[in-house]
From TrEMBL:
<comment type="pathway">
    <text>Metabolic intermediate biosynthesis; acetyl-CoA biosynthesis; acetyl-CoA from acetate: step 1/2.</text>
</comment>
<feature type="binding site">
    <location>
        <position position="14"/>
    </location>
    <ligand>
        <name>ATP</name>
    </ligand>
</feature>
<feature type="binding site">
    <location>
        <position position="7"/>
    </location>
    <ligand>
        <name>Mg(2+)</name>
    </ligand>
</feature>
<feature type="binding site">
    <location>
        <begin position="331"/>
        <end position="335"/>
    </location>
    <ligand>
        <name>ATP</name>
    </ligand>
</feature>
<feature type="binding site">
    <location>
        <position position="91"/>
    </location>
    <ligand>
        <name>substrate</name>
    </ligand>
</feature>
<keyword id="KW-0460">Magnesium</keyword>
<keyword id="KW-0418">Kinase</keyword>
<dbReference type="GO" id="GO:0005524">
    <property type="term" value="F:ATP binding"/>
</dbReference>
<dbReference type="GO" id="GO:0000287">
    <property type="term" value="F:magnesium ion binding"/>
</dbReference>
<dbReference type="GO" id="GO:0008776">
    <property type="term" value="F:acetate kinase activity"/>
</dbReference>
<dbReference type="GO" id="GO:0006083">
    <property type="term" value="P:acetate metabolic process"/>
</dbReference>
<keyword id="KW-0808">Transferase</keyword>
<feature type="binding site">
    <location>
        <position position="384"/>
    </location>
    <ligand>
        <name>Mg(2+)</name>
    </ligand>
</feature>
<dbReference type="GO" id="GO:0006085">
    <property type="term" value="P:acetyl-CoA biosynthetic process"/>
</dbReference>
<feature type="active site" description="Proton donor/acceptor">
    <location>
        <position position="148"/>
    </location>
</feature>
<dbReference type="InterPro" id="IPR004372">
    <property type="entry name" value="Ac/propionate_kinase"/>
</dbReference>
<feature type="binding site">
    <location>
        <begin position="208"/>
        <end position="212"/>
    </location>
    <ligand>
        <name>ATP</name>
    </ligand>
</feature>
Length: 398
């Protein structure tokens, strides 16, 4: 059984084609910088040379089309046609309280995802675009959506409720949902394997750091808290999202700048974050380069991001009354050596210390703390795609 996994992020598309008989990857790739200058598709067949395709990728639909072309290309493709694919798995972001598990795609599921766009304006539209593109190009092939929110359904009520009148939860489902759940689940389970310990006996903090970022607290195999909330806007400062702010700022800005609801939504979701602070880019690589060249606002954006990660990790260590392992994952977490080092410096009170030599790594699985560190530090590349492929196989096999 071959499963194609399509993972649409706010500015990227990850994909992997799996042979599920042995869970081997036939091909994988990444579309980066969607909507930005320098957009690129990197396609890696399992038994061929890597291919880099530069293109004008203004939206996710164009990105999906390029992916499918790469998979079937006469020179660097791995299948003769889309008919060789048995099922497609998609990363779903926000399903409200309608979905607490993975689900087979039908018209009702797409409508439900559309209904939740107002809660995930950056992510639900790309997810729908991915589903629609695959439906058009591969009609009849079953598709499954694996929701980011599912892993966080174990949070206790004291963690997911807001201090609003209770009727807001009862009438509209206003609560903390959390996101990046597939990633947090994968790396937390993986670290238990690496430590040789029972997953249900560990206290773990996972830091999914990228254009979209979140931190999660996992105690005894269950998520007990996470930084993102009702939407993926809450929590850390991100690529274009503001993260936590005083809610009173919203009406204040609307009045001062004469903004509509749509304009303020765009302002906090697409013009804020490290982009808004730095004035440089939403891409951390661009910001790090600018900071190295002396750009003070770029350095401020990096300092703010580091500070907020340290605060969330500290609060979750307190919430769980301890922590055994802290994991860095996703684009920034896996690849920014300096960012990991700076964050770790703020965590030494937890009796953890980074090993600078071990930390000199990008995109590889490795423990990066010193040998006698009580709290272990790890870099674990996330594998949301494998988790999605497993759920897709399970549902479609039924």
């Amino acid at each position: 059984m071959k499963v194609l996994v399509v993972n649409c992020g706010s500015s990227s598309i990850k994909y992997q084609l799996f042979e599920m008989n042995d869970e081997s990857v036939v091909a994988k790739g990444l579309v980066e910088r969607i909507g930005l200058d320098g957009a690129v598709l990197t396609h890696q067949p399992a038994d061929k040379e890597k291919v880099v395709i530069n293109a004008n990728i203004s939206n996710h639909t164009i990105g999906i089309s390029l992916v499918l072309e790469a998979l079937t290309d006469a020179k660097h493709g791995v299948i003769s046609s889309m008919k060789e694919i048995d099922a497609i798995g998609h990363r779903g972001i926000h399903g409200g309280e309608k979905f607490s598990d993975s689900v087979l795609v039908d018209a009702g599921v797409i409508k439900a995802i559309e209904d939740c766009i107002e809660m995930a304006p950056l992510h639900n539209p790309p997810s729908i675009a991915g589903i629609n593109a695959c439906t058009e190009l591969m009609p009849g092939i079953p598709q499954v959506v694996v929701f980011d929110t599912a892993f966080h359904q174990t949070m206790p009520k004291k963690a997911f409720m807001y201090g609003l009148p209770y009727e807001a939860y009862e009438k509209y489902g206003i609560r903390r949902y959390g996101f990046h759940g597939t990633s947090h689940k994968y790396v937390s389970q993986r670290v238990a394997d690496l430590m040789g310990k029972d997953y249900n006996d560990l206290k773990i903090i996972t830091c999914h750091l990228g254009n979209g970022s979140s931190v999660a607290a996992i105690a005894n195999g269950k998520c007990v808290d996470t930084s993102m909330g009702f939407t993926p806007l809450e929590g850390l400062l991100m690529g274009t999202r503001c993260g936590n702010i005083d809610p009173a700022i919203i009406p204040f800005l609307m009045k001062k700048e004469n903004m509509t609801m749509e304009e303020i939504d765009t302002y906090i979701n697409k013009k804020s974050g490290v982009l808004g602070v730095s004035g440089v880019s939403s891409d951390f690589r661009d910001i790090e380069k600018a900071a190295q060249e002396g750009n003070e606002r770029a350095q401020l954006a990096l300092d703010m991001f580091t500070y907020e990660v340290v605060k969330f990790v500290g609060s979750y260590a307190a919430a769980m009354n301890g922590v055994d392992a802290i994991i860095f994952t996703a684009g920034v977490g896996e690849n920014s050596i300096e960012m990991r080092a700076n964050i770790s410096k703020g965590l030494e009170y937890l009796n953890t210390k980074i090993d600078n030599e071990k930390n000199n790594v990008r995109g590889k699985e490795r423990e990066i703390s010193i040998d006698d560190s009580k709290v272990k530090l790890f870099v674990i590349p996330t594998n949301e795609e494998l988790m999605i492929a497993r759920d897709t196989k399970s549902i479609c096999s039924k």
